[in-house]
Amino acid sequence: MIKDNQKHLNRIHVVIDAVIIVISYLIAYWLIFGYMGKYPGIPKGVYFSALFFIVPGGLGLYWFFHLYEPMRVMGRRLELFNVLKANLVGLLTITLVLYLAKERLQHFSRPMVFLFIGFNFVFEAVFRLTLRSILRSFRRKGYNQKHVLLIGYSRAAQGYIDRVLANPDWGYIIRGILDDHAERGTEYKGVRVLGHIANLDEILPMNRLDEIAITLSINEYDKLERIVNACEKSGVHTKFIPDYNKVIPTKPYTEDLLGLPVINIRNVPLTDSFNAALKRTMDILGGTFALILFSPVMLVVAIAVKLTSPGPVIFSQERVGLHNRSFKMYKFRSMEVQKPTDEKTAWTTKGDPRVTSIGRFIRKTSIDELPQLWNIVKGDMSLVGPRPERPHFVEKFREEIPRYMVKHQVRPGLTGWAQVNGYRGDTSITKRIEYDLYYIENWSLGLDFKIIFLTFFRGFVNKNAY
Question: How far does the chain reach from its first CA to its final CA, in angstroms?
Answer without folding.
Answer: 58
